[in-house]
Every structure is written in C-alpha cells, then in structure tokens.
Design a protein that fits this description.
Length: 50
Amino acid sequence: MRSSNRETHFLVTELVRDELDNVLFVEIEAVLTKRVQRLDWHDLSDAERW
C-alpha cells in the first residue's frame, strides 16, 4: 500500500481475527480522506510500504 501525499495519518478501525483470536488483517482509515483499506498487519512495520 502506498499512501498519497495527502494521506499521512491513519487509524486502525478494525482487527480481523481467526478462530484462535490471532490477528489476520487490519482495516485502516485515512484521517483526511476517509479512504478505508484492509491489509496484512505485518505490513504496518514494513518501512518500504510506508
């Protein structure tokens, strides 16, 4: 996921979990544009994607 220059602040709005309560995905929302995207939670720590 590449954010646009205007989208610099995001909120995690949902955690998607499996039956063992492990987090599979996160849903993030851009504060400015309200655009919502679901991504693998590991991607949040990947500096190449941000």
